[in-house]
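Sequence design from tokenized structure. All designs in this work follow the same two-part layout: the structure record, then the generated sequence. An example of the structure record is given first.
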């Protein structure tokens, strides 16, 4: 093989290895060389020698949920809430994310759609539901006359997610991560004050009601934060299970009837 062909092959192999790592959720470079931590000598930090008074006790770390509650409560507008979220440093997902994905659509909308978490495309663009699942979501709601680009509150949608940061490898958010974001979600919904909330998928259903099992809950109107809540299957699920679109259509018609 000539040198040029070898270089091209190395380049393609490196690119394929990188793509594989991205798919597996490796999205943060933390060093140039691998470190075998089993071979590192374990050395406990030596306490400073002191023959006077003991060191002052360290202040207990703030509870991330309490911090979230306090900063979210202070946000009097959506812009302030967006800033508060962008400045919240207690959720590790933020470190691996390119963008804080806040919301899209018309804040005057009667219908607020609450999704799970950004995927790769949403993370790149900084807007919720812009990938394949998002395109299906747009088509589904367009079928009952609702759109995120509508300036008219009656036909508008407002779209946000429980998690504003992409979980690595698109894994499900953990209960602790959801708990940290819940005060922001509650404040977000209070500020938009929609007539109806649509929870798409397990994560928003669990976050708002504590219930699990979207396939059982879908289509059954419930209450959350003092508002009617319609649980629906996630459009990513519908892409994988087209037969379930029939039930999703029934849910959309139920939403349309509720709005009339
Ligand atoms: N899935 C979600 O739940 N939210 C998004 O923003 C994108 C995909």
């Amino acid at each position: 093989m000539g040198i040029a062909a070898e270089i091209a092959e190395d380049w393609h192999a490196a690119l394929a290895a990188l793509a594989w790592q991205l798919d597996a959720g490796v999205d943060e470079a933390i060093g140039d060389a691998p470190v075998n931590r089993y071979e590192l000598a374990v050395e406990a930090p030596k306490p400073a020698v002191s023959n006077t008074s003991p060191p002052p006790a360290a202040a207990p770390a703030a509870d991330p949920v309490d911090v979230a509650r306090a900063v979210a409560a202070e946000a009097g507008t959506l812009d302030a809430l967006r800033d508060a979220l962008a400045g919240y440093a207690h959720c590790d997902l933020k470190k691996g994310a390119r963008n804080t994905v806040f919301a899209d659509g018309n804040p005057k909308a009667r219908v607020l759609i609450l999704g799970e978490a950004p995927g790769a495309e949403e993370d790149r663009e900084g807007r919720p539901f812009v990938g394949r699942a998002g395109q299906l979501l747009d088509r589904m709601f367009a079928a009952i006359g609702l759109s995120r680009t509508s300036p008219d509150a009656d036909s508008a949608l407002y779209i946000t997610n429980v998690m504003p940061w992409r979980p690595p490898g698109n894994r499900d958010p953990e209960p602790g991560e959801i708990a940290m974001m819940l005060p922001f979600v509650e404040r977000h919904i209070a500020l938009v004050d929609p007539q109806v909330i649509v929870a798409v998928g397990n994560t928003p259903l669990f976050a708002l009601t504590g219930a699990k099992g979207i396939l059982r809950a879908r289509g059954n109107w419930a209450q959350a934060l003092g508002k009617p809540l319609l649980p629906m299957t996630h459009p990513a699920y519908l892409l994988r299970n087209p037969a379930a679109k029939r039930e999703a259509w029934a849910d959309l018609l139920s939403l349309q009837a509720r709005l009339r």
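The beta strands are 103-105, 111-115, 157-161, 196-200, 222-224, 227-232. We note this feature because it recurs in several other targets discussed in the main text.
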